[in-house]
Amino acid sequence: MSDPTLLVVDGLKATYVHAITALHDVGFTLAEGEIVALLGANGAGKTTVLKALSNLLSAARGQIRAGSIRFAGRDVTATRPADLVRAGLVPVLEGRHCFPSLTVEENLISGGLGRGSTRREIAADLDKVYAHFPQLAEKRRTASGLTSGGEQQMTAIGRALMSRPRLLVLDEPSMGLAPLVVQDIFATLQRLNREEGLSLLVAEQNAAVALRVAHRAIVLENGVTVLSGTAAELTARDDIKAFYLGHKAPVPVPSRASSTPAFAG
Ligand SMILES: Nc1ncnc2c1ncn2[C@@H]1O[C@H](COP(=O)(O)OP(=O)(O)OP(=O)(O)O)[C@@H](O)[C@H]1O
């Protein structure tokens, strides 16, 4: 039987400029067909993990000091970023990075060209992207720089889909977008997972939206994996609710016996 584990991150330690330790010990796995959410506060290390997965850390003056990353049996740290994309590990990094002066369609096509797709494959893949994101079909001739933030995020995801990914790695797809647009994008990601078996790793500060579509989640704190479990398990935890889902933490109530506040249960 083939191994269903697509990604294995083990004991990952990473620094920037050989001095700042961003990741101390990060480990998790992702099975084929899974949606895994990578949660954590600002600066917890999510982007660093995603850059390491695409072997793009050195471009940010980062270094892996220990541990390993394997994607579909390959040693990621020994594989060039472009070869990782060809193997099916495709990142959608923070900030969307569309070419603003190219049209939406030209941006999408660039994803297919990077992979070396034929004209026929590109045409078929474009149809698929437009079926998932009908809004992009309407804007196909518009310069990306003139489209909305949501449309730019859809273009960035669509361009990644043109590379025919096995695992899509997304960094904060909800960032700066209106709640309805975020819902729409996550619904499309979920459909891609259900209908096409696409595996997804989604780093998010917006835990509520990520936990709604994820099968499992991992929580990072100061560069360490501190929790992992099914989305249902994590959603039910009071500490996760308090820190990441915007629910109120236990409220201090004044004690009669002393002036020191005690915590209500
Ligand atoms: N290029 C860099 N040079 C030096 N330190 C960096 C660099 N990028 C990130 N860091 C530091 O590494 C740590 C992890 O940052 P990272 O961006 O991975 O966190 P994050 O969870 O993605 O947060 P955010 O949501 O703000 O992007 C932080 O302490 C950050 O200041």
Automatic annotation (TrEMBL):
Residues 6-247 form the ABC transporter domain. It comes from the Bacteria. Keywords: Amino-acid transport, ATP-binding, Nucleotide-binding, Transport. GO terms for molecular function: ATP binding; ATP hydrolysis activity; branched-chain amino acid transmembrane transporter activity. GO terms for biological process: L-amino acid transport. PROSITE patterns: ABC_TRANSPORTER_2. SUPFAM superfamilies: P-loop containing nucleoside triphosphate hydrolases (SSF52540). PANTHER family: HIGH-AFFINITY BRANCHED-CHAIN AMINO ACID TRANSPORT ATP-BINDING PROTEIN LIVF (PTHR43820:SF4). Belongs to the ABC transporter superfamily. This is ABC transporter ATP-binding protein. It comes from Rhizobium quercicola.
